Amino acid sequence: MVSVLWPRVHGMAGTQTAIEPSPTDEPPRGRRPALSPSRAADFKQCPLLYRFRAVDRIPEAPSRAQLRGTLVHSVLEKLFALPQAERVPEKAKELLEPAWAELSEERPEWTELFPDEDQEEISSWLDSAAKLVDSYFGLEDPRRLDPEACEVHVETELGSGVLLRGYIDRLDVAPTGEIRVVDYKTGAAPREIGEAKAMFQMKFYAVVLWRLRGVVPRQLKLMYLTDGQALAYTPDEPELRRFERTLEAIWQAILRAGRTGDFRPSPSKLCGWCDHQSRCPSFGGTPPEYPGWPEPDAGDESPLDRAD
Ligand code: SF4
After folding, report:
1. Could you say which of 21, 109, 180, 212 has the lowest number of CB atoms within 10 Å?
2. pTM for the complete prediction?
3. What is the mean pLDDT of each run of 10 residues along the chain (308 residues)?
4. Per-residue confidence (pLDDT) for residue 296, from 0 to 100
5. Nearest atom of ligand 1 to the alpha carbon of 49
6. What residue's CA is closest to ligand 1, atom 3?
7. Exposure string for 161-172, b = 16+ CB within 10 A, e = fewer
8. Which GO terms describe its molecular function (predicted)?
9. In this predicted structure, what is the pLDDT of residue 298?
């Protein structure tokens, strides 16, 4: 049985993790296939989309909105690394430019979204990110919070052998031991389209934490920064038990499709957000030859997945 909780970055004042961090910031590579919330949601939405992303691993060009989400997540993570009294809007917005410089250095291909490094466009894009940061401060005061960790990599193996893996934006743990899972939503898509997917993702994390710590999280909190609203949900154990069975069924269906290569398209209104219409039979395209089930890992999430 595997049970892991790795905080990705830290040096956060007053922060502790209940399980010791790995000596490195990142989880080890070369891991066996796992189910992540993003890839499970892909398979549920459209098995062929799952194949393109997890099996063929066809790169997708991020949109500026996705990239802005990644940037805002990074800024909020850095904000919580500051002493509590310094977590104010001005300070958070000062973090935007250095965080963008850091991301562009790590992923130079992302800067291609701004042809000729047009400073005017970059600055208007940074302004739109600043609005999301302001919207965050309309929802809570981070000076009053002392999260256990931000951007936490979690991994656990269910009794059935299904490996679950994902990243949690923020984990708040009360002195009484009650756990709150927080996820920031920054996407441009209408909230109603993403809400079921977001709740699926939160229940996924709730199952992982319940299995890691033996405690059902007290609250799952979604913070929609685009429209400045929050949604809180309290799961219970019977519900998580049922959800665990759903995850096991999804993984078995993925493995069956993986053995045969039979990943069928499932068209819906979400096709409008799909990068793969040109190779999708539902849109007159032809998928590339099936490359076979990937090893070692079909479950990874990208930073862009985590910033939807
Ligand atoms: S276009 Fe629609 S049906 Fe085709 S792969 Fe994408 S999500 Fe699936």
Report:
1. 109
2. 0.85
3. 41 31 41 87 96 93 91 97 98 97 92 85 96 97 96 92 94 95 83 80 96 96 93 96 96 94 96 95 97 74 66
4. 62
5. 5
6. 267
7. ebbbbbbbbbbb
8. exonuclease activity; helicase activity
9. 61
> Which tokens belong to 230?
């929050």
Residue 52 Cα, ligand 1 centroid: separation in angstroms?
10
Q: Which residues contact 2 (CB under 8 A, 6 or more apart)?
A: 155, 156, 157, 163
Say how far apart CA 141 and CA 144 lie, in whole Å.
6
Q: For residues 291 and 271, what is the distance between their CA atoms, to the nearest angstrom?
A: 23
- For a pocket test of ligand 1, which of 39, 44, 46 has the largest count of ligand atoms closer than 8 A to its C-beta? 46
Q: What pLDDT was estimated at residue 196?
A: 84
At residue 284, the pLDDT reads: 97
Domain at 3-9+33-249+300-307: CATH code: 3.90.320
pLDDT of residue 37: 94
Task: Please tell me if the CB atom of residue 158 comes closer than 6 angstroms to any atom of ligand 1.
Answer: no
Ligand 1 pocket: which of 43, 49, 278, 286 to mutate (most atoms within 8 A of CB): 49
Q: From ligand 1's centre to the CA of 305, what distance in Å?
A: 17
The residue ranges of every structural domain in the chain are 3-9+33-249+300-307
Sign (positive/negative) of CA torsion 239, 217, 133, 5?
Answer: negative
